[in-house]
Amino acid sequence: MSINFFTEDITYAIKHKALLKKWVRSVIKSHHYHLQELNFILCSDNYLYEMNIKYLDHDTLTDVITFDNSEINQSIEGDIFISIDRVKENAEKLQVSSEVELHRVMIHGTLHLLGFNDKTKQEKEGMRKMEDFWLDKLAQDFSSK
User: Fold this and answer.
1) pLDDT tens digits for 112-138?
2) Considering only CA atoms, which of 110, 115, 112, 107 is closest in space to residue 132?
3) Domains, the chain, with CATH or none
4) What residues contact 72, with CB distance under 8 A and at least 6 apart?
5) What's phi and psi for 14, nearest 5 deg?
6) Is 42 in contact with 10 (CB distance < 8 Å)?
7) From residue 130, how far is each of 27, 67, 70, 107, 108 by CA, in Å?
8) Taking the complete model, does pTM exceed 0.70, yes or no?
9) 3, 14, 42, 46 from 11: Cα distances, Å
C-alpha cells in the first residue's frame, strides 16, 4: 500500500510528498481500486526517450510512460516514469508552474492505471476533464493546509 518517489538520472526534490501521496490515494480509492504499490520515477528526456524506444517502440519524446504491473483486477501496482525536462517545457507552454504540470502528469499516469485512455479525441477530452477535476481537489487540499 505504498506510494514512492524516485529519481533516475537527475536530481529533483518533490515538494509536499505526504499531501501528494494522500491525494493520489484518494483518486485511487474514489475509482474503487486498491493500492498495492505505485512508484513515480522522475528522470530526464534522454532516459524516458530510451525507454520509449526500448519498451514501446516509439521514437518520440514524451512526458510520461506508465507501466501497469498489477495482476489483480481493480488493483494498482505500477511504475510511472516522468520526464522533468518535458514537464518544465510543457509548463512554460501552458503558462503554469512546473509543480502544477508535474501534478497533472502524475495524475495522468495514475488515471491510465485506473483504466482511462487517451488515444482518441473523445478519450483525450475525458482524460483532461478528469485531470482538471483532480487538480482542483489538490488545489483545495493545498489551500486548506
Assistant:
1) 999 999 999 999 999 999 999 999 999
2) 107
3) 2-143 (3.40.390.30)
4) 34, 36
5) -75, 130
6) yes
7) 10, 20, 22, 9, 9
8) yes
9) 19, 10, 9, 14
